[in-house]
UniProtKB/TrEMBL annotation:
Residues 1-32 form the signal peptide. This is Subtilisin-like protease. InterPro entries: Peptidase_S8/S53_dom, Peptidase_S8/S53_dom_sf, Peptidase_S8_Asp-AS, Peptidase_S8_Ser-AS, Peptidase_S8_subtilisin-rel, Peptidases_S8_3, S8pro/Inhibitor_I9, SBT. Residues 182-674 form the Peptidase S8/S53 domain. GO terms for biological process: proteolysis. It comes from the Eukaryota. GO terms for molecular function: serine-type endopeptidase activity. Residues 85-155 form the Inhibitor I9 domain. PANTHER family: PROPROTEIN CONVERTASE SUBTILISIN/KEXIN (PTHR10795). GO terms for cellular component: extracellular region. The keyword Hydrolase applies. Residues 745-841 form the Subtilisin-like protease fibronectin type-III domain. It is found in: Secreted.
Length: 847
């Protein structure tokens, strides 16, 4: 039985749902009157038993098989979404679930009462109770029970990244806990809109959100985005589609002329930046931890300018950014960018979006932008300007391991975020090609398992189906959702997936599945499975199967593993060097600037979302991209600004960039994933073109010691070194100084030369933001191709009027090279502050 999502109307019934949740999680004790102790040697452990009926959070008013009330439920749901009716329906459905749970357990145990540890009706429909291993195995075979799983530790898995970044014991603790992290800050999200019904953005159940005088935004209400959608947490919501309409690409039926998110991407990024704390992530009936935004108390202002399938038109995007700044947002988060350097300007820094963002910075708004997803190839960064904080994506320490145990006691290790096969016994294996009995889509190979009608159902039922992950899944229209549907339709016990090449396996991205599943992304593991299958599967001379002797069971892939390793630059994350024009000529500005987690990030989703078909109909999604890394930085920036409200965008950016990690806990350099011939990424030491200054370290950013300040006039002066005075004046409405200087004069926390010839002087000024004076020593890790020296190399910097120190770095080429080489400058303070800036140089000729 399938009961779809409950619907939007019930979510406003917070008081009733809190009551239901309280009842559903209450500690229960219902011992049997005649209870038989387990046989000697069989201890009882707590198991979670999941029943077939869907829980309250996914209920829509229709209950197949609910005797006497099914028609009542359905009619009431169709006729009214009023609160009283919905509360009544929720109450009745809660009672129904409890009654069904008890009836099934009574049928199984033979008595009416049993000892329960917990009863679940809200997030999942199940119970937790003590069972012997034998009882658990037999209970799992019950037709109305979908899973029986032994209790295990659940770790937060942006479920996991707040812990990974050290927020609970760090920044949150200093902000009064998650209930105060980001208080009174407004993060502007320019994206695909927002789902206002999602619990990540609920205001009820939270400390009340009062009015915020500094914010002047409004909400665009519509039928699908009704009044009440802006609730204090969502403080503003606008949409911009005039350009898309003019181009003929906007379709109100699927794009919605309102702030409603019809894609999913916008809800995901908003929840990562500022989603509520402790929101349960439930997917396909399984719980994957508690989600939280990085700044859970921050407000969200939504500016919808991107639309499903068509992306966004720059006029709409700029209008959105403009409105956001006019409304008074503190941070502007842009998980968007062009596919290539935009034409129409002599410099990438003068493209219209970047100029608009320069004005945002002038208005004291920090702009955080995704670096792009064109990696691991060079010159793929699509965030160009020094006034924008550009974010690379890192892969954190979470892995999704699973195993396939074979009948010969062999074990093949793979991956798969999915449940185990039922019970402890082994199931026969059957290769998809050996199960073909009909005709399917000629565009898809039978091995992709996309059409149930193609296979002999009687032959497949109860077996583990072996399918193949090929480029059909990458480019040919095959999907993992259709694979799961095939498995369910055929009654297969699960699916084990091979790859037809290591290159294809390297393109597999983990997604949660509701059926037992494991994939082997390498040819070696795939060949091991195939060899085992062929050895124990008997065929006649014509190749017809005589008997299936190969057996296996799939392990539980829903338990995630944390390796405690440092981030790696994700292979898809765009790389520098930065480019200054449409011809891809290299710039003297470092991009990206910093790295944050961006691989397989759990975040809010809208059930009507289409950004990724794997999550259609779901409330949460696991996504990868620099889009996912960007709101991590935006959330952290909001907390920094809450602590230091007078800091400029450059100061906020500097604090995060100069304190970033460049090594793991053992002091080894961070690594970057490169192109590889197989599914295992090629790893090499990460350079500033991969990770910018390094991996975000929010604890260090809270107390950076020194910062590098820059303002609007500094950026204009930089532009004057890149374009003619007339072009700069036309774009910025600010005249160039008589002496423009060089791009490397800009006071930013990095030094980049696209073509160093001879010796250059690079001025920098640092500002002490610590409350006391401190002595700093500068050390430099030099490269083979150039040498950097500092004057002074030791200085004491004071507070108040004496809190600035000018330094001149001398960068001298020592040998010619067409490749970039890298150095690092480190400021070590006597009070423990450590400030780092990367140096990137190409010496195409010495003189």
């Amino acid at each position: 039985m399938r009961i779809p999502e409950f619907g939007r109307g019930w979510r406003i019934q917070t008081s009733w749902l809190v009551l239901v949740l309280t009842l559903g999680l209450a500690l229960l004790s219902c011992e049997a009157k005649e209870y038989n102790a387990p046989p000697d040697g069989q201890k009882k452990d707590v198991y979670i038993v999941i029943f077939e009926d869907m829980p309250i959070v996914t209920y829509n008013g229709k209950i197949t098989g609910l005797r006497g009330t099914a028609k009542y439920f359905s009619e009431k749901w169709r006729k009214s979404h009023k609160r009283a009716h919905i509360s009544d329906l929720v109450k009745k459905y809660n009672e129904y679930l409890i009654k069904e749970q008890d009836a099934i357990l009574s049928d199984f145990f033979g008595f009416g009462d049993c000892e329960k540890t917990y009863r679940y009706t809200h997030l999942v429909n199940g119970v937790a109770l003590p069972l012997t291993a034998d009882e658990a195995l037999r209970l799992s075979e019950h037709p109305k029970i979908v899973r029986v799983e032994k209790s295990y530790k659940v770790y937060k898995s942006t479920v996991h990244t707040p812990d990974y970044l050290g927020l609970p014991k760090g920044m949150w603790a200093r902000s009064g806990g998650p209930a105060g992290a980001g208080e009174n800050m407004v993060i502007g999200i320019v994206d695909t809109g927002i789902d206002p019904t999602h619990p990540s953005f609920a205001a009820r159940g939270q400390k009340p959100y009062g009015p915020l005088r500094k914010f002047r935004g409004t909400c665009d209400y519509a039928r699908e985005f009704p009044r009440g959608s802006c609730n204090g947490k969502i403080i503003g919501a606008r949409f911009f589609n005039a350009a898309a309409k003019r181009e003929g690409s906007f379709n109100a039926t699927i794009h919605f002329a309102s702030p409603l998110d019809g894609d999913g991407h916008g809800s995901h990024t908003a929840s990562t930046a500022a989603g509520n704390y402790g929101v349960p992530v439930v997917f396909n009936g399984a719980r994957y931890g508690l989600a939280s935004g990085v700044a859970p108390r921050a407000r969200v202002a939504v500016y919808k300018a991107l639309y499903r399938y068509i992306g966004g038109s720059i006029p709409d995007v700029i209008a959105a950014c403009n409105q956001a700044v006019a409304d008074g947002v503190d941070i502007l988060s842009l998980s968007l960018g062009p596919n290539a350097p935009p034409g129409g300007a002599t410099s990438t820094f003068l493209n219209i979006l970047d100029v608009a963002l320069l004005n945002a910075v002038k208005a004291n708004v920090l702009v955080v932008q995704a670096a792009g997803n064109g990696g691991p190839f060079a010159k793929t960064v699509t965030s160009f300007s020094p006034w924008v904080l550009s974010v690379a994506a890192g892969q954190d320490d979470r892995v999704f391991r699973n195993t396939l145990t074979l009948g010969n006691r062999g074990v093949i290790r793979g991956t798969g975020l999915a449940p185990a096969t039922k019970g402890a016994y082994l199931y026969p294996l059957i290769l998809a090609d050996d199960a073909v009995a009909g005709k399917g889509d000629p565009a898809l190979t039978p091995s992709s398992c996309q059409a149930a009608s193609l296979y002999n159902r009687l032959l497949v039922r109860g077996k583990i189906l072996i399918c193949t992950f090929s480029f059909d899944f990458v480019y040919g229209g095959a999907t993992m959702q259709q694979l799961a549907k095939t498995v369910k339709t055929l009654g297969a016990a699960g699916v084990a997936m091979m790859v037809d090449s290591d290159n294809a396996g390297g393109k597999y991205e983990v997604i949660p599945l509701s059926v037992p599943f494991i994939i082997f992304p390498s040819s070696a593991s795939s060949n091991t499975l195939l060899a085992y299958y062929n050895r124990y599967t008997k065929k006649d001379r014509k190749g017809k199967i005589i008997s299936f002797g190969a057996t296996a069971k799939i392990g539980n892939g829903q338990t995630m593993t944390y390796t405690r390793s440092a981030q790696q630059v994700a292979s898809f994350s765009s790389r520098g060097p930065n480019v200054k024009d449409f011809n891809f000529d290299e710039a003297d500005i470092l991009k990206p600037n910093v790295m944050a987690p961006g691989y397989l990030i759990w975040g809010a989703w809208t059930p009507i979302g289409t950004d990724n078909p794997a999550f259609t109909g779901q409330r949460f999604a696991m996504m990868s991209g620099t889009s996912m890394a960007t709101p991590h930085v935006a959330g952290l920036a909001a907390m920094l600004k809450a602590k230091y409200p007078r800091w400029s965008p450059a100061a906020l950016s500097s604090a995060m960039v100069t304190t970033a990690d460049v090594a793991d806990r053992q002091g080894r350099p961070l690594q970057a994933q490169g192109a590889s011939a197989d599914s295992t990424p090629f790893l090499q030491a990460a350079t500033p073109f991969d990770m910018g200054s390094g991996a975000l370290n929010i604890q260090a950013a809270l107390n950076p010691g020194l910062i590098f300040e820059a303002g609007h006039l500094d950026y204009v002066k930089f532009l004057c070194s890149q374009a003619t005075p007339r072009e700069v004046l036309g774009s910025t409405k600010t005249a160039c100084p008589v002496r423009a200087g060089m791009a490397t004069d800009l006071n930013i926390p990095s030094i980049t030369f696209a073509n160093l010839v001879g010796t250059k002087l690079v001025p920098r000024t640092v500002t002490n933001v610590a409350p006391v004076a401190e002595k700093y020593t500068i050390t430099i890790t030099n490269a083979r191709d150039f040498v950097v020296t500092a004057n002074p190399s030791v200085f004491t910097i004071g507070v108040g009027r004496r809190n600035k120190q000018a330094i001149v770095f001398t960068v001298r080429a020592t040998r010619a090279s067409q490749a970039s080489s890298f150095a690092r400058i480190t400021f070590t303070g006597s009070l423990g502050h450590v400030v780092r800036i990367p140096v990137s140089v190409v010496n195409k000729r010495l003189r």
